[in-house]
Specification:
Chain lengths: 207, 159
């Protein structure tokens, strides 16, 4: 008897099966978005000693239960907050704790505003009734103010260290990127220096 | 005569669909690889606010998620209309956060614990009261690294 060849399997419905699976995965896929504003909470143990901070070194931002913004006792729109914060941080009207003047500040050097970025503190107070979206908007603007100053500083001192056309955000991104070809150690020094020159000092109060 | 019979009637040749399964399979594999199965089933409304000064959260396995928002419509009758906390797959009280953090820490290797970050996924309509309470609990649990998870976008989208 001649060997009979096996009948061919009909693959016509393969596409249908594949479609079915495809649609299942299309529906279940959630492109995860995991990014946000990173913050560090202060540790629990509170130092008992009272630190005396001059009023002019504190930038008070108050967000009330109706999401109204009160900055330094004046009503303000959210869009003006970033510029106001930059002006306050970058004022450089006096000296820091070591008695040094802020030679990189480009502010007005108003003696009634902050002495030095090192001393300038932003105090953010919010109410229990404040909505989360308003709080995030304010946080975003304040972080934006710091980033603006740090970016500016990065473009100033970066080229001296061989990091041309790189702002602070890009510096941090490159530092984290394992494939970045540049001098990692030097970059870390620059990042640390900028962080030290414009430290993020943000205190939060929940009323 | 018949030699020149015009080919009318518009009999379009059938499109060859032999490669259709290949194309579909390609798409299928893409989505299979890109899919991240949701770990938690959300029982709350969770529309995140938008911000533009954001950093990416790295090392997904070292992130603890705390969800806050109004119970979604199917749970409204039972849990009310006020924003609530969801940990893992169930609603929780503020007081349960410390236990949650401890459990998450116990499930990680010891050397990874300092890098654990808490991701706060809070609905934009929630009040700061509950967020403040959570932050206070996190401080008590000494879980100080915090990320307010947001979507990328301008803050003006928040209203």
């Amino acid at each position: 008897m001649a060997k009979r060849s096996a009948p061919e399997v009909n693959a016509g419905s393969m596409a249908d099966i594949a479609f079915l699976l495809l649609i299942f995965f299309l529906v279940t896929t959630t492109m995860e978005k995991d990014s946000g504003i990173s913050r560090k909470l202060p540790p629990m143990e509170e130092s008992e000693e009272d630190v005396v901070i001059k009023q002019k070194n504190i930038f008070t931002v108050l967000l009330n239960g109706k999401d109204q913004l009160l900055v330094e006792d004046e009503l303000m729109e959210l869009k003006d907050l970033r510029a106001a914060a930059v002006e306050f941080l970058d004022n450089g009207g006096g000296e820091n704790a070591d008695g040094q003047k802020c030679d990189y500040c480009k502010g007005k050097r108003d003696t009634n505003s902050s002495d030095h970025p090192d001393k300038a503190i932003i105090s953010l107070a919010n109410n229990r009734e404040t909505s989360y979206k308003a709080y995030i908007s304010v946080q975003n603007e304040l972080v934006g103010a710091y980033n603006e100053l740090r970016n500016r500083r990065a473009l100033e001192i970066g080229p001296q260290q061989g990091f041309r056309d790189m702002n602070f955000i890009e510096m941090q991104k490159n530092y984290k990127d394992v494939n970045w070809p540049g001098n990692r150690k030097k970059l870390e020094e620059v990042i640390d220096q900028i962080k030290k020159e414009y430290p993020q000092k943000l205190s939060e109060v929940l009323e | 005569m018949s030699k020149f019979k015009k080919k009318k009637g518009g009999d379009l040749p059938a499109v060859n669909t032999a490669s259709l399964p290949d194309i579909v399979f390609m798409l299928l594999f893409f989505f299979m690889v890109a899919t991240v199965m949701r770990e938690d089933t959300l029982m709350i409304e969770n529309r995140l606010p938008s911000a533009d000064q954001i950093e990416k959260l790295e090392k997904k396995n070292l992130v603890m998620y705390i969800y806050v928002g109004k119970p979604s419509s199917s749970y409204k009758a039972k849990y009310g209309d006020e924003a609530r906390i969801q940990l893992n797959d169930k609603f929780a009280q503020v007081s349960e956060i410390q236990a949650f953090i401890a459990a998450e820490r116990a499930s990680k290797r010891e050397e990874e614990i300092p890098y654990l970050t808490t991701s706060l996924r809070v609905d934009k309509e929630a009040n700061m009261g509950i967020v403040g309470d959570i932050k206070q609990e996190l401080r008590k649990a000494n879980a100080l690294k915090l990320n307010y998870t947001t979507t990328q976008g301008d803050v003006s989208n928040n209203n």
